[in-house]
Amino acid sequence: MQNLLKKFSFTKGRAIRTLAGLFIALIFVGQAGHWLEIPFVERLDGIIYDVRLRLTAPGGVDPRIVIVDIDEQSLREREAGGEGRWPWPRDRLALLTNRLFDDYNVNLMGFDVIFSERDESSGIKTIEKLAREDFKSDAAFQERFAKIKPSLDLDSQFAKSLKERATVLGFSFLIPGDQQKKGALPPAAITVEELPLGLVDPTVRQGYTGNLASLQSNAADGGHINPSIDPDGIIRRMPMLILHDGKYYESLSLASARTLLGGLPLGGVIADPANPGFGSLEYLDVGGALLPVDENLTSFIPYRGPYKSFEYISASDVLNKKVPKEKLESKIVLIGTTAPGLLDLRATPVGKAYPGVEIHANLIAGILDGTIKQAPFWTHTANFALVAILGLVFALVLPWLNPLRSSILAGVAIAGMIGLNLFSYQKGIVLPLASVLGVPLLVYLWNIGFGYFIESRSKRLITGLFGQYVPPDLVDEMAKNPANFSMEGESRAMTVLFSDVRGFTTISEALDAKTLSEFINAFLTPFTRIIYRNRGTIDKYMGDCIMAFWGAPLRDENHARNGVISAFEMVNAIDQINEDFAKRNWPPIKVGIGLNTGRMSVGNMGSEIRLAYTVMGDAVNLGSRLEGITKEYGVAIIIGPETRQEVPDLIARELDKVKVKGKDIAVTIYEPLGFEGQVAQETLAALALFEKALAAYRNQEWESSKQQLEVLMRDHRNTGEVLYELYLERIEHLKDNPPGDNWDGSFTFTKK
User: Fold this and answer.
1) pLDDT by residue (tens digit) across 67-84?
2) What is the pTM of this model?
3) Which long-range contacts (CB under 8 A, 24 or more apart) does 75-84 make?
4) Which partner for 474 in 8, 138, 470, 684 could form a disulfide, CB atoms 3.0-4.6 Å apart?
5) Which pairs with CB-CB distance under 8 Å and at least 24 residues apart come from 675-680?
6) What distance in Å separates the CA atoms of residue 493 and residue 597, rounded to the nearest whole number?
7) 694 Cβ contact partners less than 8 Å away, ≥ 6 residues apart
8) Residue 587 gets which letter from DSSP?
């Protein structure tokens, strides 16, 4: 490879640099034109937006809006000056409302809290039942109950406190696909007839969690509390309108602002005011004021600064009238929580644990002040043009310049783009920046690094290509014959392994970030060593999951056996890992492992921005599915049929014939138990009995299969309790719902 590269003349090298530069430019042009998705560029744009926002945020405390905080002080017991744990009785919320309006004369009160359940803490439900049943004919009881019922109906007291006051209740739409509906929604802000779907691409939701109808009907309005979460988990935008059942429902911030301003009407999206006939979607018309939105009807959140850019007052202090009147009089009040246990802390550009209620406060202030940034329709065109021009100029010019002049040109271009971007941001226009920086930078780096890469020695080349995937001793072996190895795609018979820690989400929630990192490293490291020891290649780590394969880049005739051995050793290593975890007061782990063998495409795959030496194909997908269903059968390892066939001395229990997601043909799956001569007699006896039960099951001899399984549950429970129970449940179902004569005994999995 080195000899070939040395044959390139100066002219050929310049041509290669030009063509490569044009290719890089083309990639970024595709991203700017929305024909390609480059997650890295999108993530970088988010980071740049966050930095830009923090640098230009006005800071200070907005005196108009106060957050009445259900904080840790408020959740203390009464004797400690608090109100007790959440949720509070509704009569206390009624008192809080009356305090704010009657004693402090606030202008508006919004709730970043949902009241979807009836409050029965007064015992009213029990007394109502007594009145209907045991004391139905007791006139004295009925008379007394009628007198005290209003004092027991805490929801009615709360509803009464909301009536004819500027109160706005929050509600939540559920995740896409969830159609559950609970509680009542406020009146819709606008309909699809007024804002046709042909003009917008809104957020659409089917299910929701609303407030009790009695509460919502007495409040002045209501708004959703669902932010728009970017792929990196950061909240930068808020849907001003969400479409549900043919109607648009406004956000809590927009509903609060409109209520405060006397219920201004909400008009449809209008075009760019300077070109009303253009058809671009730029604004919502809020009683004549223009609220910038994008085509998804979302608006940028105008964060003033970090946490506590608005004054926070403890809810318990308001209830106990410990707050000076001037701190709340004529203020906009939002009721929310910062108590960690109530889970309303969000990741934002100005803080990783930012109270959700303060997001709404920022938006209300931005709507009232008209300071919300916008990304007009033409920003996409401008970004596309800049990327195309910069890409073309740098690709054609840099190959003719020396390193110094190339560096000067790149520096000037990058500084100019940053300056232009900051200037437009100060004028209220948000322009993308990552792609216009990425084009000159990557073309420049390509030209500077070209000579180094073509002159690299073979061992350095092999180490750079494969060192992150395979153990060092294999890299040394490969470096002896570099011509035999390539990262170009090819098809091979290989074995792939997926391993995943069960219940990892629950475990991770109990650990802080530093401990979680140590925890993951503590089990990924021994697993990786096992894979390396058995000549495996690490494809990638995905959180707690490992993906590895055998058979590339070094060919391995025993790829299936080495994969199975690695799986056994990983499971055996769990005991020592958990013993070490116990000493550190960490929770124990269990793993599920899926192994599959077959033809796979292997090579360097990805984009010009990021490449990875990886495997792809149906056989790889099946390996992932097998790992995902290990928990369904209560086993640690599941292998596919070709893996079983490739290791003839492996003793394995046939588990099932399954149709996993993405496969139309049933696949026989197995649990490897050990190699010949290494499996206990009890396990072999249980295996023989299960094979009889499985044969009877496939022949639809339900009673015979059930009898065998019941014997296994009684005498060999420890060899597969979950598996035996699974088949017993299926038999009971199939007895009532016979599968028919064409049934092949398979089961269809719709989950991973």
Assistant:
1) 999 888 888 877 666 788
2) 0.56
3) 75/339, 75/341, 76/316, 81/316, 81/320, 82/316, 83/315, 83/316, 83/319
4) 470
5) 675/649, 675/650, 675/651, 676/649, 676/650, 676/651, 679/651
6) 7
7) 654, 705, 727
8) P
